[in-house]
Amino acid sequence: MSESSGSASVKAEPFVLTTPLYYVNAPPHMGSAYSTIAADAIARFQRLLGKKVIFITGTDEHGEKIATAAAAHGCSPKEHCDTISHAYQMLWKDLDISYDKFIRTSDPVHEEIVKEFYSKVFSKGDIYCADYEGLYCVNCEEYKDEKELLENNHCPMHLKPCLLRKENNYFFSLSKYQKQLEDILAAQSDFVQPPFRLNEVLGWVKNGLRDFSISRASVEWGIPVPNDNKQTIYVWFDALLGYVSALLKEGEEPTLQNALSSGWPVSLHLIGKDILRFHAVYWPAMLMSAGLDLPKMVFGHGFLTKDGMKMGKSLGNTLEPKDLLFEFGSDAVRYFFLREVEFGNDGDYSEERFINIVNAHLANTIGNLLNRTLGLLKKNCESTLGFDSASAAQEIPLKHNVKELVEKARIHYENLSISSACESVMEIGNAGNLYMDEHAPWSLFKQGGASAEAASKDLVIILETVRIIAIALSPITPTLSFRMYSQLGYSRAQFEAVTWDDTRWGGLKAGQVMAEPKPVFARIERKGEEKKDGGVPPKGVKERKRAPQPQRVAEAQP
Ligand SMILES: Nc1ncnc2c1ncn2[C@@H]1O[C@H](COP(=O)(O)OP(=O)(O)OP(=O)(O)O)[C@@H](O)[C@H]1O
Fold first, then answer.
1. CB of 490 sitting under 6 A from ligand 1
2. Element holding 132 (H helix, E strand)
3. What's the pLDDT at 316?
């Protein structure tokens, strides 16, 4: 991605990004939440740059696995999909996901788009009928190559046996697009990110592409193949087109032309590495066949793992996001996973690490800095700024340091190095804390006169640093950032109007009145940890409370 300057000018071309459309075989888990949180951070960052963003997420609802899951719950596939899709939407709400469009592949408008697309590919001569026999993983909804399977034909991802299946299906001529795909991957080196995943994709393509079946004779819960109602369209062929259907406006006639005119091609498909082949090989070939533009980038991130295995619905080894949210709150969950897991690589969850990171960074480095400073301002300056931040900080090193770190954070966000962006912002917090400790304004106030004046300038300088942190961290911790902003005396509307340009030094003005100091982030107490109000809780009393409760813990004042 670019390193061009972060301007707030509105670009005509929207930034369109997508999460995977999650398969509704079971409710969402922390892995599904991870992709969506990351996409949300990117969407929020792009909006801060002044871009028009179309952020698409949704659910993939057809196929054999869904019909089986519905039967197991004694309901119809549609009822099952309604329930699980709703669970995704509720979780996204709790996680502060700012999506613009939630697409469900059982939506009738999507069916129209799939049928039109299928007919285009058919007219191109890229669909034919043939018998196929192969090993099928129902959990991947994919025929597998024997070479990629474990002992006894077990799927390496789901650890379940693949079954031999023989069907008469419609096939897509993927092999026809081998050369074109090789050329695209060579010419557009950032089409697949991170770079090591591009090598993976190049390997698959160079090994030779085989046509794949795009219909199922044995699956009823799906979109009927045009002109052959005995077969339904393969769930992946159908699901990928959800990214197109999502662009249709409310009430608009469901045609490809209408959908494509509202933002195609996608700027970024953000996916887990498990579905890279579908997005970086099958999907571009399908689009080329239909004569549609290709997405600009496919980013395959790593897995959240448990005992080294991918956390997933089929394996059932998942971490429940609702529990984490209940206990720690949305900002903590978002921050931990985006800061802790280097974006692109795998990462493991540990509660101890979660608590340590979140307490150290959000409660101490940021929350405590703001709270201490506001406490001093209240005590010594009636919570009112005596100087503009621009005039308070003429040529101090902190100001230059902050400027450099903000620019680093911006470049990291642009390059999707989300963890490094968090790190740069936290360095701003460290610099602010160091400034506070070195200048010790509490003792300058005691000296009075010119020293007291210097102290009140110091407070403005630190609060300006915190203001910049609030903006730069807002793609990751939107709720916490708003709490910080309102402590600085700004309204919700003022917070919502900020752009990345507002990270420039000089926002705080003399006379601005700060809010009553309240901790913006409650430190998480470990089970059995001694509480500030005295001792461990008595037996039978729940040790942790629902987060966030910022007023619960007041950090020590200097
Ligand atoms: N453990 C995980 N770590 C990171 N992302 C994950 C994880 N599990 C799922 N995802 C996200 O969800 C996408 C797959 O969605 P899907 O609905 O198929 O979930 P799943 O839990 O992987 O299902 P299954 O276990 O049945 O394969 C991945 O590409 C990724 O974006």
1. no
2. strand 127-137
3. 80
Query: Does ligand 1 come within 6 angstroms of the Cβ of 495?
Result: no
- Say yes or no: domain 15-340 is CATH 1.20.1530.20: no
**Rounded Cα–Cα distance for residues 480 and 376 (Å):** 21
In what order do the strands lie in the sheet containing 298-301?
Answer: 101-104, 53-60, 15-23, 268-272, 298-301, 192-193
Report residue 357 CA to chain centroid gap: 19
Whether the link from the prior residue into 550 is cis, omega within 30° of 0, is no
Beta strand extents in 453-548 (DSSP E only):
none
Kindly report, residue by residue over 292-301, the tens digit of the pLDDT: 999 999 999 9
Percent of the chain with pLDDT over 70: 92
The amino acid at residue 533 is D
Whether the Cβ atoms of residue 325 and residue 90 lie closer than 8 Å to each other? no
Please, are residues 23 and 104 in contact by the beta-carbon 8 Å criterion?
A: no
Outline which parts of the chain fall under CATH 3.40.50.620: 15-340
With a 6 A CB cut-off, is 271 part of the ligand 1 pocket?
yes
The pTM score is 0.91
Q: Candidates 18, 29, 32: which one to mutate for ligand 1, based on the most atoms within 8 Å of Cβ?
A: 32
Whether the complex's predicted ipTM surpasses the cut of 0.95? yes
Tokens representing 117 are: 């697309």
Could you confirm whether domain 363-503 is CATH 1.10.730.10? yes
The two tokens of residue 266 are 């996608």
Please say whether the beta carbons of 204 and 281 come within 8 A.
yes
Give ranges for CATH 1.10.730.10 in the chain.
363-503
pLDDT of amino acid 529: 60
At 11, the pLDDT band (50, 70, 90 cuts) reads very low
Distance (Å) from CA 272 to ligand 1 centroid? 7
